[in-house]
UniProtKB/TrEMBL annotation:
GO terms for biological process: DNA-templated transcription. GO terms for cellular component: DNA-directed RNA polymerase complex. One of its GO terms (molecular function) is DNA binding. This is DNA-directed RNA polymerase. Keywords: DNA-directed RNA polymerase, Nucleotidyltransferase, Transcription, Transferase.
Amino acid sequence: NQRLEQDIDAGAPQIIIDDLWELLQYHVTTYFNNETPGVPVSRHRSTRPLKTLAQRLKGKEGRLRYNLSGKRVNFSARTVISSDASLTINQVGIPMRIAENMTVPFYVTKWNIEKGKEYVKNTSYPTAVNVIGKDGLRKRVTETNREEILAALEPGSVIERQLVDDDIVLFNRQPTLHRVSIMAHRVKVLPGKTMRMNVSIAMPYNADFDGDEMNLHVPQSIESQAEARYLMQPKNIVLGAKDGRPIAFIIEDEIAGAYLLTKDDTMFDKNEAMVMLSNIGVYELPEPGRNGMYSGKSIFSLLLPKDLNFEFNSKNN
């Protein structure tokens, strides 16, 4: 721009002024967008294309989506998901490595101070990672200061301890398209390196287990934990907002299992019946048949409410 001004003032030939004018137009164009159709790409001396305004703003790794809409946050984890039929729909299986690295505040009162001291005393999982005194100072718990922190522990202190079973966490799969793409689950710490979930609750997340990854967030305040526990657990939002249909139901092998269980000739002895029922928290047996065996239908009936009265139209009416 300055060179063009100097040449015009100096009375340079028109052909030189035209060339400089074209060059100025080129640099202004590539300054705004270095991918303009029909315009050669402006490059560094190293021949790498210049990343100009449009390229810095747009796209998945641009300023808007990468730096503003999406940010790294504390108290979160991400890994591959897999299925686990032994978990309830309200649980999520967490690898030990994640449980050891995530922390949740434990607010010390005169009623739970002994439990708090146990976390500080523990040298292995589950242990206290940091302790925040009533003065607001955060201290990392180490072998050298463990006894000093124990002596100073008092109601009003906050212990940042590792995640343990039954802590409440938020589980999310992207893209988050509707409200049940993020729900609250209770922690179940498990061996392995994947996060586990019951297959029946995969549908609202639109999740499958061919390499999908999901995000975990650990609420830090009492209020957020209570909100997650009572408003966001699958058991509290079983009916979908769109049409009132259940968001969780039996699929795949569960349907085949229910069919096989309720066939007329499916029978179990007492030991088999007790093992099956105890696995789902039922500790009563149905009446046995004349031969002392238990039918699959009678076992299935124990899962149904005592006052169930249900009418429906079959597929063939």
